[in-house]
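Tokens as discussed.
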């Protein structure tokens, strides 16, 4: 089965992304809902973390899509099996922006990350903006691509920090090599 991705440069939960999100959801399995995860902003304080979750909920509500905010702010949250199980029925998981390094370190080798991989394996969509997009990239690449968790093992995803640039940035694809 093909894996589905929606990777955005910046500007999550804005109207310009609605058509792409609806397209991505039309190609998936699951119950049609979106799990919103704002882990990348987890170190920026309660107000910022909650703001991203609330923006996501309002955005999807405006599109007639059920959104579910997952409270994954810390590694302890990502290790919670009951939170990970919330990914079992959704059609898409959306990771908002913030720190790609913090996001990758918080999610790597956790039940929540396992849940993301199960979602992809059953035909769901991995969606992310900024840091949320970057973690989908290849592992073993230096800065600024060092936050990839390997969902796209032959792709480095880089997102510009400049707010004027609000689109996907796929920096390069390296050929797969067998060793």
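Sequence:
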């Amino acid at each position: 089965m093909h894996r589905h991705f929606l990777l955005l440069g910046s500007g999550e939960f804005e109207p310009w992304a609605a058509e792409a999100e609806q397209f991505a959801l039309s190609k998936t399995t699951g119950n049609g809902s979106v799990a919103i995860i704002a882990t990348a902003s987890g170190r920026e304080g309660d107000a910022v973390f909650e703001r991203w979750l609330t923006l996501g909920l309002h955005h999807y509500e405006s599109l007639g899509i059920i959104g579910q905010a997952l409270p994954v702010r810390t590694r302890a949250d990502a290790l919670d099996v009951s939170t990970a199980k919330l990914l079992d029925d959704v059609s898409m998981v959306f990771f908002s922006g913030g720190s790609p390094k913090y996001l990758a370190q918080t999610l790597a080798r956790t039940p929540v990350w396992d849940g993301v991989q199960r979602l992809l394996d059953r035909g769901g969509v991995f969606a992310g903006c900024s840091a949320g997009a970057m973690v989908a990239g290849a592992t073993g690449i230096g800065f600024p691509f060092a936050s990839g968790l390997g969902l796209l093992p032959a792709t480095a995803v880089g997102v510009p920090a400049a707010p004027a640039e609000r689109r996907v940035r796929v920096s390069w694809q390296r050929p797969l090599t067998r060793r």
